Amino acid sequence: QANEALFNLADHYFRGRKYDLAIKYYNRIGSGTLTADQTAEVAFKLGYSHFIKKEFEEAMAAFQQGRNIQGEYYYDLNYYYGMAAYFEDDYTTAINSWQIAQNDRTYEKLIPYYLTQIYFVNKDYQRLITYAVPYATQSGVQNQKEINQLIGQSYFELGDYASAQPYLEEYEANSGTMRAEDFYQLAYVQYQNGDFEKAIPNFQELSNEKTAMGQTAMYYLAESYLQSGDKASARNAFYNVVQFQENMPLRENALFNYAKLSAELDFDVDAINAFSKFLPTSQYYNEAQDLMRDVLVNTTNYRKSIEILEQMENLSPELQAAYQTVALRQ
Known about the structure:
Elements: H1 2-15, H2 19-26, H3 36-52, H4 56-64, H5 74-87, H6 91-101, H7 111-121, H8 125-132, H9 144-157, H10 161-174, H11 180-192, H12 196-204, H13 212-227, H14 231-242, H15 248-264, H16 268-275, H17 285-298, H18 302-311, H19 317-329
Helix pairs in contact: 1-2, 2-3, 3-4, 3-5, 4-5, 5-6, 7-8, 7-9, 8-9, 9-10, 10-11, 11-12, 11-13, 12-13, 13-14, 14-15, 15-16, 15-17, 16-17, 17-19, 18-19
């Protein structure tokens, strides 16, 4: 009789969302006189009250008291037990509990996103793909676009860029906002797959990022322009890479490409000036010297070319010969 009164009082506060009072009175109910179904109900409602208050450890302890009782609250208990474990970073417990709850229609469309997240956090990419791909197109699945992204990112991490692209593009098509990292990953996948026309606008989204990722994106933007035949835009993008102060190897490679494209597009002075920056310690030094000599002997801007050469130290024999040639043409 006393238990029934406590239960009714606790239930009254639970329905009124007064969870502090609900917890107080559910805890006063003597468990020894409850049926299995009543034990499960109390376990769920007490645990849920703690869950709403973000007291996840207490919630798990309450849910545990009834989660193995197969009745009306069986799937509810296992779903929320899994959620509490998830928020406590106890992913193994969450997975085991959700595998039970997923058999219920109420939860079968909610759980895939959380399980997919856990597999990704655990870097279990192949397991994620095997599990999540069926949910990528299944009707009614919650957070489906995020599931698509996580599948695409998993393929990306595994180096399978061809499989990654459609999932990352699906996420872009259905996402209102994209982070810089999202644009970079999508663009890089498109670049790796030779889809340069698609990669270009996505790399351009990162043009204001003054970070190592922004510099790398600018470099691949230049490469994408080059592969698509737009040498002028490629030259400008390589020049922008050179303006970054970090990541020296990338800057040097970009400078060399900028110099070569300047020569090809008849920006003689820019080409000579860029080639002249390579020191004997550079892997590009010998080729830069040869290409600079070719530009020098064919340029019509004699005065500026001579000025650049006179500022350089230790001219190679080839450049000394080119200097003489240009000097005679003045």
